[in-house]
Amino acid sequence: MKSLGSITKYYKFVDPGTQIMLANEMDAATNYKEFVRRFCNAVIIEESHDERVYLSARLALHYGGINTIPRLVKKYPSSVLARPYYLLHLRHNYGEMPMVKVAESLNEAFETRPQSWILLDLLLRLWQCYNAFNDVSETRQAQTSMRELIQAETDLECFIPGIYHVMMQGRKESESYESLNDVLKVARKYDDQVVMARLFAMNAATIRETDRELAEKCFHFARELDADLGLEPQSVYSLSI
């Protein structure tokens, strides 16, 4: 497959060995869905450190198929950084995991003092937990922490579109994280086609009652992106950013 920003955006954050693995599996894959499965399989076959296992779980949650995370759990049952994704997999696919357990696993992951790009994603998952709990104060604090982290480290800008997608799906307040147009500009800047597909699908669903013609164009573009990526044409619950 051609170089894809949804993958290359991780290059500046991961170690050289992981970057080589990402590049090799991207070169060998025919589309994004196959890439995720190939990369996760490589992590399962080789002995990998916790950050690489975390990235595999992060990618696999929605795009690795139902069996990938169970295989990661079997190989790396003690991965503290990946554990929140293990639990979210159970919750999303079987409804068997209370969000309070997910929150507990996130707090354990925070104690490892993860790198900023991982911390940002863990904060987003914590935001999801507090949002589900209807805890407005903690939800706003998690959002504030994400903003401050991005402002302090501009390289994290590439993750803004994914954060926006998750927050707008789960939002119980009227306040918007950013404007959709601004977020789409960031997604285009980094060629994050996976997130772009989700954003266009979400926007189409939002405006279909007020602008049916534009909504159909957005749906059509999202479907084209999904087809190229090898993904099912649907808006997922929570994006692996």
Short description:
This protein has helices spanning about 5-10, 15-30, 30-45, 50-65, 70-75, 85-95, 100-110, 115-135, 135-150, 160-170, 180-190, 195-205, 210-230.
Care to describe what's here?
This protein is an all-alpha fold. It has 13 helices and no strands. It has helices at residues 5-8, 16-28, 32-45, 50-63, 68-75, 83-94, 99-110, 116-133, 136-152, 160-170, 180-189, 193-207, 212-229. The longest helix has 18 residues, at 116-133. The chain is globular. The two termini are 20 Å apart. 41% of the residues are buried. The model is unreliable at 172-177 and 235-241 (pLDDT under 50).
Mean pLDDT across every amino acid position: 90
User: What portion of residues is helical?
Assistant: 55-70%
Overall geometry comes to: globular
Q: Rg from C-alpha positions? A: 17 Å
User: Helix/strand/pairing class, anyone?
Assistant: mainly alpha
Describe the largest sheet: none
Oligomer: single chain
- Helix count, per DSSP? 13
Low-confidence residue ranges: 172-177, 235-241
Q: What are its keywords?
A:
mainly alpha; single chain; 241 residues
Secondary structure layout:
Blueprint: H1 5-8, H2 16-28, H3 32-45, H4 50-63, H5 68-75, H6 83-94, H7 99-110, H8 116-133, H9 136-152, H10 160-170, H11 180-189, H12 193-207, H13 212-229
Helix pairs in contact: 2-3, 3-4, 3-5, 4-6, 5-6, 6-7, 7-8, 8-9, 8-10, 10-12, 11-12, 12-13
